[in-house]
Amino acid sequence: MNRLLTCGAAALLLVACSSGSRRVDPDVDDELGGTGYESGDVRQISDWMVRSLQTRLPRAADGSAPRIVIGDVQNETRFMIDKDLFVKRMRVELNKQAMGRLTFLAREDLAAVEAERKAKREGQVTGTGQKALLGADYLLTGTLSGLSKAREGDRSDYLLSTFRLTDLESSAIVWEDSHEMKRVGEAGVLYK
User: Fold this and answer.
1) CATH 3.40.50.10610 applies to domain 34-125+132-186
2) Short-list 92, 57, 67, CA closest to 168
3) Distances (CA, A) of 134 to 27, 109, 117, 130, 131
4) Where are the domains of the chain?
């Protein structure tokens, strides 16, 4: 009986582990078709924007490293996509490559930051002095736009990805760039 249970458990484990998935290079086409953004496009577009922004990286008014807060990315395409994939990847790459020439502010973590600051000030945890929350110098935003057409099961999608950096004092756009592509294929692929 023990042997039967052991064999049964091993068989279930093999079935569970062999889901048929395999790891592939995110820059390689997955051959599933479709005319929307692919993982390689997200990587290419974010790399393009990082290189472009680094060439025009502004300084803060006082000459220090500019502080950037990430704003919203608008998705105006027909595709359901995690639009924040672009700015998340841009932020990571800029932080790796900029070497102190800019600072991103974690506004998405503001509640946790404020709770920790309060705990420090109330003596619940130790801290290294009171600091003011940093204000941002620039706002990074983006828009994903598309022009789609279809005929008899075939689709064509023109996709324009634009990103910009806005001065939060003057509202001047200090950097902006775009990336465009067009894909043609069969309709019917579901994007999530």
Assistant:
1) yes
2) 67
3) 37, 13, 13, 12, 9
4) 34-125+132-186
From CA 159, how far away is CA 185, in angstroms rounded? Answer: 14
**Helix (H) or strand (E) segment spanning residue 74:** strand 67-76
pTM of the predicted model over 0.85? no
pLDDT single digits (tens) 13-29: 444 455 577 776 666 66
d(CA 83, CA 147): 17
Tens digits of residue pLDDT in 48-107: 888 888 888 777 677 788 899 999 999 999 888 888 888 888 888 888 887 778 888 888
Spatial distance between the Cα atoms of 133 and 110, rounded to a whole number of angstroms? 10
Torsion of CA 114, 116, 118, 124, to 10 degrees: 170
